[in-house]
Amino acid sequence: MENFNADKNFEALGLFLPPAPAPLGVYKPYLIDGKYLYLSGHGPVQDDKSLIIGRIGESLNMEQGKEAAQQVGLTMLSTIKTNLGSLNKVKRVIKVLGMVNCTSNFEKHPFIINGCSELFAKVWGEENGIGVRSAVGMGSLPDNIPVEVEALFELA
Question: Which residues contact 121 (CB under 8 A, 6 or more apart)?
Fold first, then answer.
């Protein structure tokens, strides 16, 4: 496990990090407390700083929702890399809370949030990249984003 390298794992995926978002309210995007890194709720920021917009079950289908959740994960990785310098500063994922902006009859919230969870598992490996998780539906999310995720990590 000593040769584990989250930065190299991310590079191997061939994905790109969007710009780390600046807070749009009165909060910190991240907070370090001892050996824990807390990330505030993140949305799906794209490379041009715009947000993916839409509601699952209405203007977006399940696959588009899952892709939006992956984009949220990339946005979170960007916050980590921008502020801590390296994804290797994170030892493991502890907890993920995924919120899905969806119609009231939508029931596949875990499928959507897997877009983020699968990314974390690829970056930090299955042992350290998968933590406890909740995936819940919401009547709305800020700016009509389809997915918001907050997470707790243990620092290396």
Answer: 129, 130
Rounded-to-integer distance, Cα 75 and Cα 63, Å: 18
Cβ atoms of residues 38 and 120 within 8 Å: no
pTM of the model: 0.96
Whether residue 2 has pLDDT greater than 80: no
- pLDDT at residue 3, as a whole number: 64
Task: Please give the average per-residue pLDDT across 111-126, as a whole number.
Answer: 98
If you write DSSP's letter for every residue of 21-55 in order, what string do you get? PPPSSSS-SEEEETTEEEEEEE--B-TTSPBP---
Strands (E), the chain: 30-33, 36-42, 90-101, 132-138, 147-155
Looking at this protein, which amino acid is placed at residue 149? V
Q: What is the CA radius of gyration of the chain?
A: 15
Q: How many angstroms separate the CA atoms of 70 and 67, rounded?
A: 5
Across 50-74, b (16+ Cβ under 10 Å) vs e yields ebbbbbbbeebeeebbbbbbbbbbb
| DSSP code for 15 | -
On the question of pLDDT at 109 being above 90, the answer is yes
Tokens for 115?
């877009």
